[in-house]
């Protein structure tokens, strides 16, 4: 009954097998391994982007921070949602990697609207050399609150950015959960909508610790490599990152794992709703559901693991408190059913 | 016949097995896994340092840069050898992580002498606010040229640093190769000699990508945690780092692997010398041997892999050219013998 | 009819004279001049702070950025108003000098309320190593909208900061305008209220380009000196900064200049109001007044210089548009009267 | 008898007068003053560079650090002399402003030779993404040891840089002292030799605190403006910087002041030599002369002010100790004669 995070579950067995297969003899280090060449080809095919520059790192924070540092200058500001992971949960890593750029929080909820983005960008107009300069836009897909931008919404945001000649980054820590939710192609959800760079997450979807960074225009490729090395994120035994990503992309493991997580979350949400919880039906693998405090207390005491979101555990017993429930690829129907039965 | 680097070999099978064992169910992320608790206990025992603060990262560059950033201020200078990895091979990662500290290169060879270190430190005295301020001393053990500092030499260097109240960092990417060479205890080679912080390498000795950073005085512990997170080096699925390190420390795998590498290198060096190469007998798992250029050409053409060190492959055929040969834990006597036969 | 800014007016003649007086023979550079010793004594007396560490720099941005960098760590966040100069008008200088700290904007207007500050600080509680850590609070006095915090308000803000053990910085670019408005002592407005460090402005009040940074607790003194040098803000011919500050503090020139500016602004505001403008009476030397767009057009065409604040110059003629009017020490009643006559 | 530094002397009276003249009414701030427009025209004429982008800052460290930050990337290394001011005397300001670039010290003395520079640049070739990347070359003219590069020497260094497509910066803190020594044109000593950016010093030659940064190719202009603002080096009351520089360039004051300083130094050197000192005749306004320690003791006791360079004041009385003597524009023959009489 573990719904605390999709980065606490196990690695998919096929990924572990791939590590064992990769563990033969010597291999060139630092990204010059043969598996990385295969990763590049596979991702270029999947994204219909034959020119894309593609790199692997081991954490999502590294993927986001290095991508943004490559796209921005230290005297610029990055536009993002007030609840963006890059703002709230990376201990100033973007500020560190960019050399001191700012983050401008576009007013609104977890999803930025094109209009709010336009106003925020326009608002940086008046100060000339005194204000920070406009820098990249960073969009989180799936958002930190479980929403999924439609391709039309992504296109509208990118169009605003393009009006100001700003590059767009997609934080896709849960890229595939959004993709299978939208039932569109990777190209549709990225460069066809106007995205320039993607953090293509794997860790939350069954890998041990691998994320790809994809630049659709390779002009920044060498700079990214230098920033990755300087950031201490270039692995000597790089083949073990490549092998994970290859296994992920083989036989649609990435898609089936994300589909499984999303389906589990829908099943869970149905059950929660049936049990009286207040919620919006999940778009991906995360649901926010309000239950009476006493119910939370009982569930947590019984061994369920998840985070309360808008209130502490102590307080009036019948007050509704929202909690976040996340399903990963590995959770079984039995486990969810056990939880719902408890509920 | 692969002697190019000890970070290109395979992962030890016991380490891979440990990953599979660790791959059960859910685990708290970000270093709160149970395995990490075991790692901490084990390393504190091994180092006879019950108070030590211990962290894992995935690359040696991260271990060194984060350790040095925690020990220094951006207006200071770090004292190291002119051939130190932190100076030559990390694309300014120490400068990045420290926020712009300088590296002062202590004149001499790969091993710093206490006298040269003292002169370098003293030399920063005269400039007051204008010069960089004195910061930590960083010692590489095994050095980049294969030498091993004796514990007396380490003590002498640390004594100089202590005279100026400067902390000392040990870059131990090949810590265990030095340890088994010296036949001393980990405590002897570190805090008993005066070392404050160690980068305790695992990747070059059979791990997939794990290094420990050990602070003998835990006062910097929380700052290090923040710097690690901000540097994007805190792993969500941290248990897979812990599991590697636990396997490494179990049944003396770390010691036997390093011994195997050193023994292989001694065997190789004997053979090279017998074949007419000019060399100094290796102290750890690395030997620099001079052979005629034509011989290198023949060996490389036949499939041997290693780096020429002081000259290009084209030039007078009978000129002696030095090459670097590194043995990792996995290389077999058969393979070395095949190479020597070729020679 | 120049009301655009108080940093565009002339230098007070007594200050220029002091430069001429200081221009005799040789003087020790880099802050070791005799005048600086006098500045230190004078400011310690004025602030009733015999232990204070005191430094001079040439720009307000330098004073603020260096002070905040000395008080904070790169993994922290600085709490300030959404319209703070350090956020809006310094092109990421605080982010640069702190090595990538964040600025947390306390919701509300130009003046932070103690309650809003407490909520913002408390809000950074939950994320552990993932969120930025709590850093200094920075208060702007006079605010960017012309308000003046009372000493009670300052004390309340500082009390919140102290509850969380956070240091407090006062951006006093218009320190003296606030002081003469409050009719309190410099000590009352600073350390007695709980302020730890002050940027004590001179440039906007008749100096050529000098601000003092005052640390009431001198523990950070040497670090500040190193940061100032490293930031390229240590002047070789420092005596000319000292001489300006000395002249400023002699014969209460600082107080009379600020009083003159405030009085001019009150006179202007009276006239604006009499002419039908909508405004709040100024607390210091800045007034925001709404007039019909057509009136602005006429005044600006006639040579008045000031900034429109909440709308462009083109638009409906009778729409009310707010403008900012700032008075410096030098503006004459005649000039203001000429402007009011025009109006 | 003050020979300690050329930045401790007074400001030229004509410069002070210019400040008084500039002190009339209001002026646009932040570099938009009319005087700055005149400075730009004048310097473009003087340098025969009609396209040059020109900026003023108040310290030499700011000029150098901002220029180098604009020319380099944080993953690069800057090539300079081991005794360069940017390495020894700026408390890591270049490292700070560049975001953590490295400085590579070209072996040799105060003057870099083209051959040594070529070897240093070539030496950074082999490490690919692991080593720092090649960045700008920075040349100090006059050097920190008083030497002056000929235009041929400058051209040879720039030719090496151009072979590797690297930009060249000239640290001209004593630009005019070198210029009048070489009797060449400013264009000859800069862009005609291949220099891309100049720190054109004024402070050491009679200004209060102004240096110009001149980019012969204006492509970096806007970036420099942003870096200057972000570095807190953009002055609100900028006209007072402009006025100083205008006075400096008017009626050849810059040239006559430098000539006076150089002539004084030659006169001093003659006298020192006649009195038995060992020295090389100065090329600009600085001479290094060895005298017996007892003589130094006597001179310093009698009130002469200068720095011993290669030894402390205590030691064998008859040992020769080198001292540095610097003459500024203001020193009189009488004062030098008094010193020589004492000697």
TrEMBL record, chains A, B, C, D:
GO terms for biological process: amino acid metabolic process. One of its GO terms (molecular function) is lyase activity. The gene is ltaE. Homotetramer. Keywords: Lyase, Pyridoxal phosphate. It comes from the Bacteria. Residues 3-289 form the Aromatic amino acid beta-eliminating lyase/threonine aldolase domain. InterPro entries: ArAA_b-elim_lyase/Thr_aldolase, PyrdxlP-dep_Trfase, PyrdxlP-dep_Trfase_major, PyrdxlP-dep_Trfase_small. Belongs to the threonine aldolase family. This is Beta-eliminating lyase-related protein. Its cofactor is pyridoxal 5'-phosphate. PANTHER family: L-THREONINE ALDOLASE-RELATED, LOW SPECIFICITY L-THREONINE ALDOLASE.
């Amino acid at each position: 009954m573990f719904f605390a995070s999709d980065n606490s579950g196990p690695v998919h067995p096929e990924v572990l097998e791939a590590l064992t297969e990769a563990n033969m003899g010597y291999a060139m280090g630092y990204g010059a391994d043969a598996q990385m060449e295969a990763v590049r080809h596979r991702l270029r095919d999947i994204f219909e982007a034959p020119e894309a520059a593609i790199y692997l790192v081991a954490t999502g924070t590294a993927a986001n921070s290095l991508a943004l540092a490559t796209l921005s200058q230290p005297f610029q500001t990055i536009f993002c949602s007030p609840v963006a992971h890059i703002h709230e949960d990376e201990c100033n890593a973007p500020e560190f990697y960019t050399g001191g750029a700012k983050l401008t929080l576009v007013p609104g909820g977890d999803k930025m609207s094109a209009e709010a983005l336009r106003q925020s960008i326009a608002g940086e107009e008046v100060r000339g050399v005194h204000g920070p300069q406009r820098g990249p836009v960073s969009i989180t897909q799936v958002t930190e609150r479980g929403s999924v931008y439609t391709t039309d919404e992504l296109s509208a945001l990118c169009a605003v950015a393009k009006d100001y000649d700003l590059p767009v980054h997609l934080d896709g820590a849960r890229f595939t959960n959004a993709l299978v939710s939208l039932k569109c192609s990777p190209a549709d959800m990225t460069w066809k909508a106007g995205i320039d760079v993607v953090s293509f997450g794997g860790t939350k979807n069954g890998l041990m610790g691998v994320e790809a960074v994809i630049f659709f225009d390779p002009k920044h490729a060498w700079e990214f490599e230098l920033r990755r090395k300087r950031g201490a994120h270039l692995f000597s035994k790089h083949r073990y990152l490549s092998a994970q990503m290859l296994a992920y992309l083989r036989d649609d493991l990435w898609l089936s794992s994300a589909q499984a997580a999303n389906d589990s979350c829908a099943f869970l949400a149905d059950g929660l709703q049936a049990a009286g919880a207040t919620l919006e039906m999940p778009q991906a693998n995360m649901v926010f559901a309000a239950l009476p405090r006493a119910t939370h207390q009982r569930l947590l005491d019984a061994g369920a693991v998840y985070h309360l979101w808008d209130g502490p555990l102590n307080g009036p017993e019948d007050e509704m408190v929202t909690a976040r429930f996340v399903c990963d690829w590995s959770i079984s129907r039995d486990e969810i059913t056990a939880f719902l039965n408890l509920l």
